[in-house]
Amino acid sequence: MRKLLLITMCFAIALMFSGVAYGMHDKGVARCSACHTMHNSQNGVPVDAAAGANSNLLIRATASDVCLTCHTTSQGAVFGSDMMNPPPERGAGNFVFLLEDKLNERGDLVLGEGAGHNIIAPSRGLNLPGDLKLPTAPGGTYRSEDMGCSSCHDPHGNTSFRLLYGAGHVHAGNANFTAPAPTAVGIYLGGLTGESNLNHTAYQGGMSAWCGNCHGNYHLESGTVNVHPSGSTLTDEVIGNYGRYSGTAKWYTGSSASSYLAAVPFEDPGMTTASTAGPTASSRVSCISCHRAHATSAPDAGRWDFGLTYLAKDGVLGVSGGGSPTGSGAYAIPNPYPDASPTVPVQRSLCNKCHAKDAYDEGAIP
According to the model, what pLDDT value does residue 8 have? Predict the structure, then answer.
């Protein structure tokens, strides 16, 4: 008996140091009971009564509710408890902003609209049957009423970045993806430290094509409405602008070697989580250059509010001369260029990171 115990202990220690991780979502060894209940009951209570009937024997009413039992405020913290004090940013944004009823400075968005990908999670206050304005994904046919965590992530595990589905069948929404999962390396999902310019998701390629599984070719340059390129290699002009831009106060004085901005990422095959250099001829603009995958406190899941000229206006709640509110009062997305100068007191839109229009909006190069 003692020999058996010793062998078992040695095996356990070997696993600890081998780098092998038998996690929740690993195929073949996952802990099924964390998400499913075999006999349609949980703690002796029928699931139908406790959480709402579902055909997949889930322990909660929806797949997203199940995911959020672990991932709300830890293990990625994708659904914070306070819209004004969200968890540290780790790249994809936070679903807590779906609860914001006054999202932008124009005040024309209401609960469930515009913040990002809707997820149906009654346990978190999201009982809406999909997006109120968008019944299907813009540019595609995927129904918002089918949208949830498992529309993008494979709950049973795979080897892709963040368990994203590859080409093939997707259970949620009964859809079929044609593009493979993107190539990327993520940062640690625990702890109190979020992304920074020195520690960030390394987007390497394929994100725009993957988003196109639901959104189609939404940003083709040849399109008649949406003409901003996505998935395209960066032009020499944009490469130069990105490398030299250091904010409105220092808009053309930066160094390409240290110009990477986590708030405005790009794809590059050589990207690592610690990369600090600006783009090269192999770099591409992507959907994630301007948007976060989950949700933000800006309209359209924007990494910043595209409708504002100055970042300092984001979230500011004021009163007009007539007594009407001006500004949303929502969480203000952090300004990555807080320093200013007496002649340039405020930071302009982060569109300038690539387009360098700060100098009186003319883009004049000294």
Answer: 40
pTM over 0.90: no
- In DSSP terms, 284 is beta-bridged to 233, 267
pLDDT at site 114: 65
Q: Are strands 41-42 and 45-46 parallel, antiparallel or unpaired?
A: antiparallel
Element (H, E) at 202: strand 202-205
Spatial CB neighbours of 188, under 8 Å, sequence gap ≥ 6: none
Within the chain, what is the greatest distance between any pair of CA atoms?
Answer: 83
pLDDT tens per residue across span 271-319: 999 999 999 999 999 999 999 999 998 888 999 988 888 888 887 765 5
Among 119, 81, 94, 79, residue whose Cα is nearest residue 333:
94
Q: Select from 278, 153, 150, 263 the least CA-distant residue to 201.
A: 263
CA 308/CA 332 separation, integer angstroms: 12
Helix (H, G, I), strand (E, B) or coil at 48: helix
Write the CA distances from 154 to 23, 24, 63, 121, 297, integer angstroms.
Answer: 14, 12, 11, 17, 26
How far apart are the C-alpha atoms of 10 and 16, rounded to whole Å?
10
> What would the mean pLDDT of 326-346 be, rounded to a whole number?
76
